[in-house]
Fold:
Amino acid sequence: MSADTGAGRHVTSLVRAFLNSPLAGLAPWIVMSVFTGPGRYEEAVSAALGLAILVVFANWRLGNTIKLLEWFDTAFFAVLATIGLFASTGTIEWLELWGGEIANVALVCFALGSIVIRRPFTLEYAREQVDSEFWEQPLFIRTNYVITWAWVAAFAVSAIAGAIGDAVLDDSGNFWTGWIVQIGATVFAIAFTEFYPDYGPNRALAKQGIETDPPASLARLFDWVPVFVLIVGIIGLVTDSTSTTLGVTLIVVGAVGIGAMRRFFPPQRSAPAD
Structure:
């Protein structure tokens, strides 16, 4: 096998891994949140729509199932792009101010809607990663309901934080409400998506008296928090978004937290093969 062929397969496997995670469907929303701002409505929506279409195309090209969230992405951003073509200047300015909240509320409605119609949106991604024999098992389905509810909560927290920044603080770019709280909510949902498929089913089976692997410590769900706190402190100092005292305190707390997590909750090592 040539080096080029090996590299190509590696890239393809990375693309598949991305497409098989909820991040693929959320990527356009992340792009919009990064680019949106005064005078950048068209650019933000166009970038998000372009990425949404690219995700759909990549799934089709690789023979993957195109997920409900990805269809929703394409339709939502196509509507926003169409509005941008015909809306007045005043409407565009309103959308630039409230676009983040509209996006988060739309995601809350989408995630809740997927639960209501009994198709929790994370289920489609989970099915890409397990054998089809598990797809209809009640424990597998229940696990994805719980994970989808975690995303509902994350989207709702982001929407509320953004609304506080815009409506109460009159500062759409506020360091805390516009960025840190919303990013933290998303990172928590990602961590929960990774953590719960092992923790939830094992805990449920253990309660039924069925022998299984012991569920991981709940502390593992919060592995990311000390690192996140440390990064917030650094960014706060670099951008002058926090006082020196607060920034240094966050860095120290984060560093101490990282050490504590490593000491008291070391990563589990897999048993050596016989």
